[in-house]
Amino acid sequence: MRILIKGGRIIDPDQPDVASDLLIEDGLIRDVRPMAGSTVPDWPEVDRTVDATDRLVLPGLIDTHVHLREPGQEYKETIASGCRAAAWGGITAVCCMPNTDPVNDNAGVTEFILKKAADAGMARVYPAAAISRGLQGQEMSEFGELRAAGAVAVTDDGMPVMNAQLMRRALEYAKGFDLTVMAHSEDLSLTGSGVMNEGKVSTRLGLGGIPNCSESVMVTRDIALCALTGAKLHIAHVSTRESILAIRQAKERGLRVTAETAPHYFTLTDEDVGEYDTHAKMNPPLRSRQDREIIREALADGTIDAIATDHAPHSSVEKDVEFDRAANGIIGLESSLPLSLELVRSGVLSIHQLAERMSLGPARILGIERGLSPGEPADITIIDPDAAHRIDSQAFQSLSRNCPFDGWDVRGWAVMTMVDGNIVFDREVDTP
Fold first, then answer.
1. Looking at the domain assignment, is residue 320 inside a domain?
2. Region for 141 from its dihedrals, namely left if φ exceeds 0, alpha if ψ lies in -120 to 50, beta otherwise
3. Is 53 exposed, middle or buried, given 0-12, 13-18 or 19+ CB atoms closer than 10 A?
């Protein structure tokens, strides 16, 4: 099948930043030709033409941090619903976390996830498997078996690996299998009974606080272990200025360290907890205004490599309770793009930097090839950057509604998402 995307602005470092035509054939990008002046490229007959005039054409967006909940908590999200939400949000691939029930600590669960994703036929799924069996932090999972089954990374996300020796061994073994180790950086002894950022707001609300050092102490430890082992270390959901400083210094030393943050950390602060709003409760917690500004700076200078959602679906059963009893986490697959585009409109990032943080950077972290050059898989996101709309969580494809951005007026969204040359979302067709 041949599809021609006409007249879109190509946002890819290997292609000229001008209005161009892009030809897709049999799931691959076959050719990209700039539209010079009034010259119209002479294309072969195609099965479909997509008019991308005044639209942005990006390598498919990739999310390095998503909780799909299946197996075990399908009332919150399924692999099918999560992949559909990703496609609606312009995301062509997700890396799913292992804290399912049963935990993804063996080949059988990894293979189950991949089969369910293939059956869904929407976004690609790259499983991250557990570092330790059952996420218990005691005994390492079998990395070789998991890699052979299709895992691209290992992490105990949701729980930190408190045992430094186990984390060292995990980095050493992961290096042998070319797996990325994703670190949930949290010192539980410093978190204690805290439920939000430690500061004036937590004091006013009478809630237990979580200090910045709860994260940064573990970031520093894991960077030291990365230096010792030479393995690939990825720091998940970075939220503090101290962590940024440590990661920046690690990169200056040439260590194999990458990092991600999420839209809520560069958009919200602990003040958005308001009057005990559980949709503003996550781990790590929303931090101070100063932390938020430094997160933005780190996105601009490349200290942070990726924007991920940490999409964490929960039902009202877990969220409509007292703040200190509520589950941590928010959904983000369908709100990430418009919130991230705000960084471009405010001058924090260029559109090319945004493509780097949401597509090419995440691809490198996961060890996959993506771009818009001939021969690449046709994973493509087409964006209308000026479309004004209101975030409506009730219209989301996700099964959960725990979104702190519900009702926000934003601009920009995906109008088409393609995976392997297949159109998995077309806003003109798939939305009322």
1. yes
2. beta
3. exposed
Q: Which are the contacts of 330, defined by CB distance < 8 A and separation ≥ 6?
A: 264, 279, 280, 282, 310, 311, 312, 402, 403, 404
- What's the one-letter identity of residue 174? A
Q: How many structural domains is the chain composed of?
A: 2
For 52-108, how does the pLDDT look when each residue is reduced to its tens digit (9 = 90+)?
999 999 999 999 999 999 999 999 999 999 999 999 999 999 999 999 999 999 999
Tokens of 182: 């994703």
**What is the per-residue burial (b if ≥16 Cβ within 10 Å, else e) of 37-47?**
eeeeeeeeebe
Please state, in angstroms and rounded to a whole number, the distance separating the CA atoms of residues 8 and 329.
36
Whether residues 47 and 112 share a domain: the answer is: no
Q: List Cβ neighbours of 39 (8 Å cut-off, separation of 6 or more).
A: none
Exposure string of 220-242, with b = 16+ CB inside 10 Å and e = fewer, is: bbbbebbbebebbbbbbbbbbbb
Closest CA to 66 of 152, 162, 1, 177: 152
Distance CA 231, CA 179 (A): 9
47 and 103 in a single domain? The answer is no
Q: Which amino acid is at 371?
A: G
Name the burial class of residue 51, with classes exposed (0-12), middle (13-18) and buried (19+) by CB atoms within 10 angstroms of its CB. exposed
Q: Are 362 and 383 contained in the same domain? A: no
Do residue 16 and residue 78 come from a single domain?
Answer: no
Per DSSP, what are the bridge partners of residue 388? 411
Catalytic residue among 310, 406, 409, 426: 310
**93 HSE (CA, 13 A, CB side):** 31
Q: Which residue has the tokens 């010079």?
A: 36
- Beta strand pairing status for 180-183 and 153-154? parallel
What tens digit of pLDDT does each residue of 127-184 get? 999 999 999 999 999 999 999 999 999 999 999 999 999 999 999 999 999 999 999 9
Beta strand extents in 134-242 (DSSP E only) = 153-154, 180-183, 196-197, 209-210, 233-235
DSSP state letters, 292-348: HHHHHHHHHHTSS-EE---B----HHHHSS-GGGSPP-B--TTTHHHHHHHHHHTTS
Q: How far apart are CA 349 and CA 15, in angstroms?
A: 19
Q: Could you confirm whether 54 is annotated as catalytic?
A: no
Cβ atoms of 236 and 155 within 8 Å: the answer is yes
Q: Is there a contact between 158 and 133 (Cβ–Cβ < 8 Å)?
A: no
Pair 241, 316 in one domain: yes
Whether omega for the bond prior to residue 102 falls within 30 degrees of 0, making it cis, is yes
pLDDT in tens, 96-118: 999 999 999 999 999 999 999 99
